Amino acid sequence: MGSTETTTKDKILIFGGTGYIGKYMVKASISLGHKTYVYARPISEKTSLSKLQLHKEFQSLSVIIVQGELDEHEKLVSVIREVDVVISALAYPQVLDQFKIIDAIKVAGNIKRFLPSDFGCEEDRVKPLPPFDNFLEKKRRIRRAIEAAGIPYT
Ligand SMILES: NC(=O)c1ccc[n+]([C@@H]2O[C@H](COP(=O)([O-])OP(=O)(O)OC[C@H]3O[C@@H](n4cnc5c(N)ncnc54)[C@H](OP(=O)(O)O)[C@@H]3O)[C@@H](O)[C@H]2O)c1
To answer: Does some domain include residue 66?
Structure first.
């Protein structure tokens, strides 16, 4: 029976995939056999050499890089419709920009699971001093919006 079983691997879209944490996720996703997409800001004359090299490395690994801004709603919806799982590893200053991803996931309506950029402490269980709590409050707002939209999340 085993040899005739077929498994369809989820297709994964990663925001912030060229970042400190994101690049490891992209490589892990590829190595686990998932068709992997990265939504990244467009290459320009300001793009660093290291980021250009990372784009080339991703392309050599068959990562599909979609260049776009987070404000491009229609583009976001269309790439989200091609995948099953969305992971955000956006930088801290872009935490609230994830509302744009949530809006697009709601319109697309096909996402099985969303992992917001939330790779630190558990913000619903800690109450740190105000400066750090202000930062965590942004992540809490994102989590509440995901819950309100009924999007399965981790
Ligand atoms: N780094 C750490 O030590 C650390 C520790 C604990 C938790 N975290 C958490 O992990 C998450 C990711 O952090 P990170 O350090 O990996 O992030 P990062 O490397 O600073 O940035 C991640 C990606 O965010 C995108 N980005 C940056 N500026 C942007 C802008 N102005 N507009 C749109 N996109 C922009 C970039 O993607 P493109 O260039 O591809 O568009 C970038 O590669 C955050 O939630 C952070 O709080 C990080």
So the answer is: yes
Classify residue 154: in a domain, yes or no.
no
Closest C-alpha to ligand 1, atom 47? 92
pTM over 0.70: yes
We report the CATH number of the domain holding residue 19 as 3.40.50.720
In a domain, 129, yes or no: yes
Question: What domain range includes position 19?
Answer: 8-149
Q: How far apart are the first and last CA of the chain?
A: 33
**38 contact partners, CB below 8 Å, separation of at least 6:** 13, 14, 15, 17, 18, 22, 26, 58, 63, 64, 65, 66
Residue range 125-153, pLDDT digits in tens = 999 999 999 999 999 999 999 999 999 99
Ligand 1 binding pocket (C-beta < 6 A) is 16-22, 40-41, 70, 89-92, 94, 117, 119-120
How large a percentage of the chain has pLDDT more than 70?
A: 95
Residue 40: inside a domain, yes or no?
A: yes
- pLDDT digits 0-9 by tens, 81-131: 999 999 999 999 999 999 999 999 999 999 999 999 999 889 999 999 999
